[in-house]
Specification:
Elements: H1 19-29, H2 33-43, H3 59-69, E1 76-80, H4 86-95, E2 98-103, H5 106-115, E3 125-129, E4 142-148, H6 157-167, E5 168-181, H7 194-199, E6 202-209, H8 213-226, H9 228-235, H10 237-250, E7 257-266
Parallel strand pairs: 1-2, 1-4, 2-3, 4-5
Antiparallel strand pairs: 5-7, 6-7
């Protein structure tokens, strides 16, 4: 564990990062086939179309989740910040596990619940409204947990890892994807997630750089911008403006960011 303050461990609340913003993304925007067509164009063969992920999820990351989580039939998987549930549901089907998804967006929870029968029987999937650092689950009730491209939305990142330490069984694994950056101009930037995870009580087993992460995300942003007129016509101004804001704010910073996948474990 690092001495002194951990950079990026606690960050200010960022305007626009609200459940309402994500309700719009997981509701209006996600219901348009246009967005998934654009994603397929951007990612090509690496895109797991059935999952319909918002984040930078590829077949590579799904494979790492399966091999790293070490979860099997009848065990409990937590999909933290589950969004529309695609990753957790796909993993539940692939491993035989039961999945509980937690997200702060009511629209996401509704969409995930509706999608569940496409992947697993209804009794193997539950989705609830909750927070990254307050899932509402019982202590020691989870055999494995995953968080895809969302942990950085928390203002207190140590609290998220502490919550995982609380809900995971002894020896259970938590895998998350995020990005790392040394950018001093971004208060929310994290140069190294390992000491933050350790401060929350977890053991870091491995850190891997996600192949083609920067290139894939840049291509996604370029595809949004190139098709923004069609997006605006299909989804309306609010949703289109959300996409343009992300593309124009994050896109120029990609050169200094690295996409990473961490495998951690509860003692």
């Amino acid at each position: 564990m690092a001495d002194g303050p951990l950079r990026g461990a606690v960050v200010p609340v960022r305007p626009g990062i609200t459940p309402e913003t994500f309700d719009r993304a997981h509701g209006t925007t996600a219901k348009s086939e246009l967005m998934w067509r654009l994603a397929r164009e951007a990612y090509g063969a690496d895109y797991p179309g059935e999952v319909q992920p918002w984040g930078v999820t590829t077949w590579w990351t799904l494979g790492r989740f399966v091999s790293g989580l070490q979860i099997g039939a009848g065990q409990q998987l937590l999909d933290l910040a589950c969004g529309r549930g695609g990753v957790g549901l796909w993993l539940a089907r692939a491993t035989g596990a039961q999945v509980t998804g937690v997200d702060w967006s009511p629209a996401a929870v509704r969409e995930a619940t509706a999608r569940a029968p496409e992947f697993v029987p209804s009794q193997r999937a539950w989705f609830v409204v909750g927070d990254l650092a307050a899932t509402g689950l019982e202590s020691g009730s989870v055999h494995a947990a995953v968080c895809v491209d969302a942990i950085f939305f928390a203002t207190d990142r140590v609290a998220v890892f502490a919550e995982m330490t609380r809900v995971l069984r002894s020896g259970a694994r938590f895998i998350f994807t995020a990005d790392e950056s040394e950018d001093p101009e971004r208060p929310a930037a994290v140069p190294d997630w390992a000491p933050i995870a350790e401060a929350g009580g977890l053991i870091v087993e491995s850190r891997e750089e996600i192949p083609q992460w920067r290139e894939d995300l840049r291509r996604m942003y370029d595809t949004w911008i190139a098709n923004i007129d069609e997006v605006r016509q299909s989804l309306g101004d609010e949703s289109a403006d959300d996409l343009i804001e992300e593309a124009t704010q994050v896109g120029p910073t990609l050169a200094g960011r690295t996409g990473v996948l961490y495998t951690t474990r509860r003692r």
